[in-house]
Specification:
- It is a single chain.
- The protein folds into 2 domains: about 25-145, Sandwich (Immunoglobulin-like); about 170-290, no CATH class.
- The protein has 4 helices and 18 strands.
- The protein has helices at about 5-20, 105-115, 135-145, 170-175; strands spanning about 25-30, 40-45, 50-55, 60-65, 75-85, 85-95, 100-105, 120, 130, 180-185, 190, 200-205, 210, 225-235, 240-250, 255-265, 275-280, 285-290.
- Helix 2 runs antiparallel to helix 3.
Amino acid sequence: MSLMRFLFLLFLGIFIGTQPAQADWTLAPNGNWISQTPTAIGVSVDGVKALSLTCANGAPLIYTSGYPATPGQNRQDSFTVTVEGRDFPITGEHSPPDGLWTGIPPAALVDALKKGRVADIRPPGQGKARMSLKGSSRAIDAALAGCMPVADQASSPPTGGGTGRIVLTGALIAEACGGAFDIADGAELTGLLDGDDKPDIVLDWAGVTCADRSRGRGAGRCGINMCSVEVFLTQTQSSQQLLGLQPQIVNRAFGKSALRTLALRPSCPDGALECVIDWRWTGTRLEPAQ
């Protein structure tokens, strides 16, 4: 356990032990083991779970902690924050050994947390944790004062990039690259692809460059002409790898979405040199639309 994490847990224990169940939100000026920047912290009414907001590399970050530790690798996952009956799904990284879920908060969620009275947090496989939002506005404003403006995920999905950007698939890419990496703008997308209300993540390995160039183009996920496009699906808690170029998420009828990629011969019908493929959810996986 790192020193910063130990000090955060010690602080949280002292805070819980000295406050009533419906505690005000508080500001940790020096952050904690997640981020050493000012952090707004709310504690659940049972005094065990926490919801926090801070800046990470200049961008807003939200995370919930205090859940039982379980073995396993870090992975992409989602949790839901409900404020005044409105659900806000957050997709990001889950660390099972730390009982931690992280993600990028949409602007509407930040506003709801500041104006609401109570919030419910529901990570998958965990019970609902309720917390008061008393004092949240002051603490959140202070914690996010140094952040760039919060974007709404529905209109501006978080994408990977250079300094100051949060990469949702960062742990996976770092493992594939054996360390440092760079990711191009637009190489990481989020959208509703698998039929539930939680954003799925699309990673275009063509946009990944490892600092260790011996790892190959796209950390070895690229062939001569095309690279792997990896989709992290929240409904099945699994990933699916596709071959394609220039992935984008396009709108369909009735509020549905599809993943669109560019393909090259021989993947195209009638011997065409290139073609567009829309990948649609069949209930278990993404398949090319006929």
